[in-house]
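Weekly sync notes, structure subgroup
Attendees: PM, AL, DS (notes)

Item 1: joint prediction request from the bench team. They want all two components modeled as one assembly rather than separately. Inputs as received:
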Amino acid sequence: MKKNISRRSPIGVFDSGIGGLTVARSLFEILPGENIIYLGDTARLPYGTKSKETVIKYSVEITKFLLNKNVKMVVVACNTASSVALPYLRKLTSLPVIGVIKPGCKAALKETNNFKIGVIGTLGTILSYSYKTQIHKIERETEVFSKACSLFVQLAEDGWTDNKIAKMVAKEYLDEFKRMNIDTLILGCTHYPILKNTISGVLGKKIKLIDSGEEAAKEVKRILEQEDMLNNQKKNGVHKFYVTDFQKKFKEISERFLGQPIHDVKKVKL
Amino acid sequence: MKKNISRRSPIGVFDSGIGGLTVARSLFEILPGENIIYLGDTARLPYGTKSKETVIKYSVEITKFLLNKNVKMVVVACNTASSVALPYLRKLTSLPVIGVIKPGCKAALKETNNFKIGVIGTLGTILSYSYKTQIHKIERETEVFSKACSLFVQLAEDGWTDNKIAKMVAKEYLDEFKRMNIDTLILGCTHYPILKNTISGVLGKKIKLIDSGEEAAKEVKRILEQEDMLNNQKKNGVHKFYVTDFQKKFKEISERFLGQPIHDVKKVKL
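Output from the run, pasted for the record:
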């Protein structure tokens, strides 16, 4: 009983949890007319510590859920899922499936002058080498320096985003990037844009920060334009949120990530 | 095809992940002759952010797994599961099911002189009020001060246990306990014993730290003695480890928590 896909169909976005709301936020800003369905797999987060097979399995389940909601496109906001699951998700549908890795890499390569690029993310993302591999696919002669910044996720969720501890942790993680003389740093985790000010405070203004989620949102716009599938309604799109579990402090954290109050959250079983 | 339970049957221990290895470590030390089966639900960690219903469901599944392995007792090393699941697990078996909350509270009440007790744990544990409720059940006239120390888990896993950041984070979380004049602090999370030195460095020697996991291990010994079920073999017991997913850096982190190399880890599907 699937209806036809039209330009008014929603964009489906998913993440392992609430981090992907920073990607949703970028989509809201760049494409205010689009209807968006967001699913956060809060019952099974985090993905970063899980095996490839498990992350693929979960991502396939969620993509099927979104396709059943008649989305016109799937955005994988989660870096870990983007690293490992895209080919498997593309087998499920002929609709566009966009991850955050490639848009982040393309933007970084457009920005860099000295072709020394830093990448920060969760341990899972960094150990997958997905950013490094993607950058080298596009431009082999690039030096890529990667680092897991595990504490940033908890700092972002706790709202410790620009206190002295956040600054000290950022300094501890990031100082070496200055020594490596990078001119561009990819924020390879959906939580990290929340710490943007602190990160650029440590690195200085000469190092340009690339927000993968924001770049993915721009890519979504490009593809929808290309395929003549933009929702050009005048009013704001409808935004629906699904979670697989009601996380503690969900409202408080989600509003910090989304930059606005969140309404209409439903719990679903996949 | 269940065999009979005997004194040589193993003790079953479970946790949402690797944190419970600090409890296993206490069991190894206090009861070296016991055979122990440990299950870490690494595919579905953390429990602290999940709903009560979800944590109960997972705990029931794991307890059934352990009972099928013919354990003589179940130890719930996870604070979150201990908070909410014990009554449901006790419906599954007439064997002893031990959590970490009650032993921790009893030990703290034995230790305190001024009946001002602090409790630290994950957000889930603190919001469940399980330590506070349990302390008041035993001794109503106790002042209990609780605080979630979310960053401690990641610090323990990353091995940032006594650097300047760990010290500053500990100071930020714990300074107020000194103002509240507590004389006893319960470490209500399996990860926190890894930070014991840093925590007592901030609080000073006058405030006694209670490790809930260690107290649970002592309780296990008491019950086995009482029921004449101690494994009094001369050689060391056999220790088996199961996980529901192979976590990144499992070996490195688990050895830090267990205090010894870990062998014979199997992945299981529940």
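Discussion: The domain at 11-99+214-267 of chain B is CATH 3.40.50.1860 (Rossmann fold).
Action: AL to compare against the crosslinking data before next sync.
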